[in-house]
Amino acid sequence: MEIKKPKIKGLPYNEFKDNEYIEELRRNGVGVIVGVLDELINWGRSNSVWPLTFATSCCGIEFMSIGAARYDFARFGFEVTRASPRQADVIMVAGTIVTKMAPVLLRLYEQMADPKYVVAVGNCAISGGPFTNSYHVVQGVDKILPVDVFIPGCPTRPEALLYGMMQLQRKIKLEHFFGEVNKKEPKSHQMPAIYPGEEPVFAEKYKQHPILANAAQNRPQADTKQAETKAE
Amino acid sequence: MSTLKAQIQNICPQAAFSHEDTDTLHAEVSPKELAGLFKHLKTDKTFLFDYMEDLIGMDFGEKLGVIYRFYSTENKQRIVLICQAESREKPELPSATPWWGIANFYEREVYDFFGIIFIGHPDMRRLFLRNDWVGYPLRKDYDASPEINPVRLDAEPMDDIAPSYSEKDGKIEEEDNLRFQKDEYVVNIGPQHPATHGVLHFQVSLEGETVKKVDVHCGYIHRGIEKMCESLTYPQTIGYTDRLDYLSAHQNRHALCACIEEAMGLEIPRRAQYIRALMDELSRIQSHLLMYACYCMDLGALTPFFYAFRDREKILNIFEDSGAGRLIQNYYVIGGVSRDLHPDFVKKTAEFIKYLPTVLPEYHKVFTGNVIFQQRSKGIGILTREQAISNGVTGPAARASGWACDLRKHQPYSVYDEVEFNEIIRTGGDCFDRYMVRMDEIHESIAIIDQLLAKLPEGDYCAKTKPVIKLPEGRYFKSVETARGEFGVFIESRGEKYPWRLKFHPPCLPLVSVVDLLTRGGKIADLISIGASLDYVVPDIDR
């Protein structure tokens, strides 16, 4: 079945086409009504992608640059940057992710509402970049999160960032919103340990070391454990 | 010099001296004598070493130890102390925290990287790495295999207990101090928070709206650059400097290149020196413009952000033209710069420095006079001159407190002694002064660029170097004035093509160490204003 060519402003179709991934997205046809609704919803979704203001290092400054007047990502509908992951659609991992940051990043991702996307910005987020041999650097954010778009560069140029975001738009436009994207995520990416009754992958670890404002609250528990062992 | 040596010999009879013919005396003292020496260094009229320039952890091969660099703002003299801990298994050294405020963070860093315990330090926790990290990465025998320290996806265990060590009757005793009391109300700000300017984590103890204490957690972008540099050749290491404080990329690189050139005894061409000074000043302007943009945005004004970025792009264009990158330029190399200036450089820069003074009044009109800004910055977060020196704060933040510490003026490097400019000094020490110092420095940078452009000589832009660069054995230190303060590079060479130890002295670590001091007793909203006015860059803190 021939599928309608999606139109993206400023991106020639030929350039848009050369990606194997697209075949995968187009594998299954959809019904007419659902398909039309999909298209409508995706038109809206792809033109109002709200990024999380998340940046660890250099690429974050370029991320700020595309927010400013010269590159102006408001043209594409990305300008509503959110400080809270609960309101964001996409997390731009701009900068190196180190071992200490990895659990925080995962937590941020898990706090985002579905459907959500990850863009790996810069060589550090892709593979560790120049720091790949370090003892404290995660070698690519795809080791932790499912990445949708990789944007190379050290740091990425604003033009590349915009192009990468357009690729994400294109991906969103081809998704089946009904029955696929709005379905539940696999268990491993659910919010761990917050909801009782479920047993996500990282639940045990979170129970062990919860991030608390004041860990002094934990101490009585430890005391009771000691008391129990003594009683035994 | 000889009097300094004699006086130290009085206090520490066993001290060994070197570098007596240079202007910086090196003294090697034993740990037992060190504790007593600190007090004399800080308080004796003849010493008055009030500024701790750097505290460098070292693995000397057989023993672990530290190298202290002290400077006296009163007597204008410098001393380097070397101290090696007695055992490698349980290295212990006396703490300098009672005398120098910044020693607190520096010693925690050394403990983190080398496992040296400082006796008398109030809070001996790791500074950068996770609490459950195994081993001390900058030791030469560190095992970096990922099986020992895998990427953990569980949250970092955060305990409220901070250990400290004290000496009683010749025995080292461990004490547990509670960081926060049980009934204290603690709010976490960061690591993901738009106002922390990166991935920094504050634990803020609050009493209503008043801040009682701030505990800073760093390391969320610690990339281990110093360890990586130990296995790279000198030309390879210079790439990492740009990625420390990416807004002062040119200046950071300048420090390392100049340090290596000085060690090699390489004379670089005049034109290259002028190009470096020009690029340094341009990047200082763009950094201050970015500070203006971020400060305004943190306080809720969005228009100045667009103004500042509009003009900042013009500078980035000039960088790009000369074959350098946009944000991270990779322009300087050992011996000069990688490419000659673009033919349009002089014209474009001259146009820019004519244009910028015409828009700066607009900047002040839209933001500086604003009542909200004035109330949120004047009298907020006051840093006194003594506090600035004791905490090692340099750069615009220290000059706002009245400390004349501009290295371009007081230890001229490159061609800064050939140009005329004013050192901007204010005495209030509050957020407003820190902001104004930066805004006024833009004018001074413009003046410097103007003079340099007029004098720009013709000639080579790079000196020829050998394909393999080996530094003669020794210790080298070089610092430059970046947009945020003194950025220093320490190299210990053992005659090979790799450095034995390469330490960067980040200007932003002292800045973040005073956040607790400045915010105590203020409102929580002031924390945002203070953080923005200090203008730290987190990857520079963490390295």
Structural account:
- The complex is a heterodimer of chains A (232) and B (543).
- With 232 residues, chain A is α/β, with parallel strands linked by helices.
- Chain A folds into two domains: 13-181, Rossmann fold; 187-231, no CATH class.
- Chain A has helices at 13-17, 21-25, 32-46, 59-67, 102-111, 122-127, 158-174, 177-181, 203-208, 219-231, and strands at 51-52, 90-94, 117-121, 149-151.
- In chain A, strands 1-2-3-4 form a four-stranded parallel sheet.
- The longest helix of chain A is centred in the last third of the chain and has 17 residues, at 158-174.
- Mean pLDDT of chain A is 71; it is low at 186-232.
- Chain B is of the alpha+beta class.
- Chain B folds into two domains: 1-142, 2-Layer Sandwich (Beta Polymerase, domain 2), CATH 3.30.460.80; 225-542, Orthogonal Bundle (Cytochrome-c3 Hydrogenase, chain B), CATH 1.10.645.10.
- Chain B has 18 helices and 17 strands.
- Chain B has helices at 2-11, 31-43, 103-114, 225-229, 234-241, 249-264, 270-298, 303-321, 345-368, 371-377, 385-390, 396-399, 407-410, 431-455, 508-513, 515-519, 524-534, 538-542, and strands spanning 16-18, 25-29, 51-59, 64-72, 77-84, 92-94, 117-119, 161-168, 171-178, 185-189, 201-207, 210-217, 332-333, 336-337, 474-482, 485-493, 501-505.
- In chain B, strands 1-2-5-4-3 form a five-stranded mixed sheet.
- In chain B, helix 6 packs antiparallel against helix 7 (270-298), helix 7 (270-298) runs antiparallel to helix 17 (524-534) and helix 9 (345-368) runs antiparallel to helix 14 (431-455).
- The longest helix of chain B is centred in the middle third of the chain and has 29 residues, at 270-298.
- The radius of gyration of chain B is 23 Å and the shape is globular.
- The model of chain B has no long low-confidence stretch (mean pLDDT 86).
- The interface between A and B is large, with 55 and 60 residues.
